Amino acid sequence: MHRFTHSPGQALRDEGKFAWLILAPAMILLAAVVVAPLIITFLYTFQNKELLSSHNGDFVGLGNYAAILSSGWFWESLGRTLYFTVVSLTLEVGLGLLVALLLNHRFHGVAALRALVILPWAVPTNVSSALWRWIYHPEYGVLNALLTSLGLIDHYKTWLSDPFLAMNMVILADVWKMTPLAAIFFLASLQFINKALYEAASLDGMGAFRRFWYITMPFLMPTMAVVVVMRTMEKFKAFDIFYVMTRGGPANGTMVLTYEAYLRGFTNLEYSTAATVAYIIGFIILALTLVYMRTMKAQEGIQE
Amino acid sequence: MKKVLTGILAAGTLMGLLTACGPKAPENVTLNALFMKQAGYSEDDTAAGTKEFEAANPGITVNLTFVPYENLEQKIITSAEAGSFDVVLSDGPFTAKFAKAGVVQAVPDVPEADKADIFPGALASCVYQGKSYGMPWLNDVKYLFYNKKMLKAAGFSNPPKTWDELVAQSKAIKAKKLVEYPLVADWAQAEALICDYTFFSASFGGSMVDSTGKPTLTSAGNQKALEFMVKSIKDGITNPKSTEYLEADSEGVFLSGKAAFTINWTSLFNDAKDPKQSQIASDIGIAVLPGTAAVSSATVNGGQPLSITKGSKHPVEAWKYISYLTGKDFQKKYSKNALPIWKSLYADATVLANNPEVVPVAQVQYESIINRPVIPYYSAFSNDLQVRIQEALLGKRTAAEALSLSQKNAEDLANKS
């Protein structure tokens, strides 16, 4: 009977305790596998943690950052990472928008088409990357067979042997895989636009392009921001596609920052360098996200 | 709701207790062992040998994991501290690094009597600063494989003895339009490229480091070797696609009859004989690698030792298992895909019967095994050299430029460690 004597405040406190209790296992797990490594890794960036160095364990302050920022390889890899990010993101957003606009219309079989479009995204990156490696295979790849039978090339080409071409071919594989995600995001937003707006605009004599520019685009801007921010982060972190397709080669043509960090950490045992590169990637993503957020806020202000 | 939760929690705890107190005799030991998927002893061979070991050693169970060579190193490093693998297949070039960084444990010394019967190059690849950090298990070097039918069609009855001869034969093969690119190699940005550079360098009189471990990449021999590789691509002798191929890729091209020559590990020979994988089953030939006027032949030591991780809780049992797999019985029985580390076994009837064509060639080739540099910073050295050699192969830099850049990097690495 004594439960009725509890005050509402007591019940709330009990509930709070219970909430902590059931959250505790997850939080302990997170602390152990996410938070602690994050902190330890951050501490590594101020130490010499090169297992093969005779100064292993020394405190170096900002020495790791200074060494990396003044090295040639870092800026080369950063350049390649930026190129990969900008080109593939532009293509994905552009193509995703076109696909979404198309799928937003009602026509026979649109439901099946919408389901099909999702497929590349549903395939794990490891699998799709291995798939593209085969597509690009210089001896028995489908791409060569296709282009030859169309008469576009007269003999089989190597797609991953030239450093710059290889990067673009990886971008193509990434765009194929990730465009659906952008398309589905845009499609979802498009469905919320009031059709009456378009009718009214048509009656007022607005052309299709102007309707798109003045009605559709402003509606899509918040979604666009989400897609761009989210995808920029992921592109900066892209690793598996490079690991499976090119392993940073040929001649470092696809050596991006994450792969550089992996190589330095796991094969060269330069843990502090790898940790510092990882944190620099994190800082860059953070900075980019802040800039995006600012821009979006500013734009919203203008619209209001 | 609370009751249900309590019930679930109680049931969970009970189950946890039950499994923890399962029937488990104290002397039972489970070893976790890490091997690789390609080249050398097949997965079936390793599994069968392990079964035999378990039968002979009741109380020891071995769990096997097989990963591609490319993932081996990372698995070893990440499992070393916790000892989640006890026995790991390592690689010659990892020895110095793993020893210095404390990734693997020192192991007992090989008895003197046995030492004399094991190929010295194989033993040397397990030793760092006088201590042994593993036992040679997989004994492998690279050979020249050739397509007998193509050579005959081009008018040659013997494989080339020198690199110049290989070029001459290739030109004849090209002229007869038997194949577009006579040689297919595995020159992707990977360790395979450095394996090949090791013997090219040695056959042109070069060496990547001197006897004290100091990098010597800019020597005349090293430069000649790289220039030869570059020219072979430029002249259409080597398939230009080689710069994106690993061993399995170049093997595929060769086995489908699209090349007259390739350079690969022992296991290619048996793959080539298998009509399911190969279109040249009756035309496969194996020979020692070509050389130059000064050096008759040189090959790279691809031998891989078995090591015990630093964190292993059962080093005694692990060493027992390693001793079994590296012992003469196992090495004799499964000699089809990898030749023994024991010299005396090369006269053994089983070994000969398993590899009638390979053994005679191997015995000659073993006279000229070159180890990759035994330096702790080898991986960083190799990663950089891969990139520079590729830049030269792709015509982005001259051979001299590429090597002097890599030399500078190697000197920095040497100073750091």
Write structural notes for this entry.
The complex is a heterodimer of chains A (304) and B (417). Chain A is built from twelve helices and no strands. Chain A is mostly helical and 304 residues long. In chain A, α3 (72-103) runs parallel beside α7 (163-190), α7 (163-190) packs across α9 and α9 (208-237) runs antiparallel to α12. The relative contact order of chain B is 0.17. In chain B, the strands form four sheets. Chain B has a five-stranded mixed beta sheet with strand order 2-1-3-12-6. Classes of the chains: A mainly alpha (304), B alpha/beta (417). Chain A binds chain B through residues 22, 50-54, 138-139, 158, 160-163, 166, 246-252, 263-264, 266-270, and chain B through 5, 70, 73-74, 77-78, 97, 100-102, 188-190, 240-241, 243-244, 252-253, 256, 258, 376-377, 379-380, 383, 386-387, 390-391, 394, 396, 416-417.
Briefly, what is this?
The complex is a heterodimer of chains A (304) and B (417). With 304 residues, chain A is mainly alpha-helical.
